[in-house]
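Re: weekly structure request thread

Next one in the queue (230 aa):
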Amino acid sequence: MGQTPTLHLLYSCPFCWKVRGLLEHLNVETDYVPVNGMRIKKDVAFTGDWGKVPVFTDEQGKHHVDSTPILRIIDEKYNGGKMASRGDRARQETWMEWVDAHLSKATVPILYGSLGSALKTTTRISKIENFGFISKRLYAWAGFPIMWGIIARKRVKKDGRKPKQLWHDLLTEFTDAHDGQPFFGGDAPDLVDFAAFGYMRSVSPYPQFRQLTDHTNGMAWYKRMEASLN
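Done, posted below.
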């Protein structure tokens, strides 16, 4: 019998939440291993030059990287590939690319789109992540001006929409693609659902999540996804 699978992760990482949601849904016994956000490359040095999270290690000790390929591997290994085979494969691949291209990039503006939001986010992250005593404080007070001033402001300016409007537009586009079904995958979620759910779920620990809760169809789908977890 092999080892218990592990998932090296950051609790604030949207890509990690994609993978974790699928593992929970499939009830895969997994050890979740938090890494130090200030030394990620060192903590996952066993992957070689990858240097990012999530990293999923299966029962045989094989390391898998990059969240979307990990979703497909988990589905194949623990679910017989049923989610990947739901519906039209080309449609699923098109929308997986859409989710990874759009929802992933919407997380930074909603969390860091203003100076106040950025401070709330970095303070919260400093409490939930596996930081050391000094790095916890350094991240909380030095991280927010960097995330707001260098990254988030550029994305908001480039898109032209307020972060809340961006999310609402994306949720409308995504839920319209469900064609009246409870999930993108039809009567049950597929890999696209779990990718989208992971990005949205990564916002849920923060006060800014309230900006998403008045999107009726988006929240109805989100609650159905939550109910699907074991």
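The chain has two domains: 6-79, 89-227. The chain has a mean pLDDT of 86.
Next request, please.
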